[in-house]
Amino acid sequence: MNPGLVVKLRPSGPWRIGPDSGARNRVDVIYHSDSLYSAVTAAMARLGWLEEWLDATARNGESVVSFGSCFPYMDEIGFVVPRAPFGRRFPIRPKPRGFVGRAPGSFP
Q: Angle at CA 69, nearest 5°, toward 94 and 61?
């Protein structure tokens, strides 16, 4: 198992989470990893570390970091989308599934 780190982001202002389609008139409940990477890349540019960041993440064959999607949380409970049972595939158009509360330290 690869080591991981859970980071809780607390926006200081309004935070709009857009859907995968990019539609500006819709919202989503999950902040996806590509949007997070883009936000971190923009922050690195503002800090003057863009070249080093791109060398470490985008310009090499293997990135030194990877991001997962962001899920909501409340206090110490993280809400994640449950995984499909082992060996079972999702249908092409899966039905929306709700979030499941996970206690701290119980993330797989």
A: 110
Locus of tokens 């993440």 = 57
Q: What share of the chain is helix, strand, coil (3-state, %, to 5)?
A: 20, 10, 70
DSSP per-residue codes, 88-108: -PPPSSPPP---EEE-TT---
pTM summary value: 0.61
Side chain identity at residue 47, one-letter code: L
Decide: helix, strand or coil at residue 54.
Answer: helix
> What's the rounded Cα separation, in Å, for the pair 49 and 61?
20
Give the residues of the chain that fall short of pLDDT 70: 1-4, 81-108
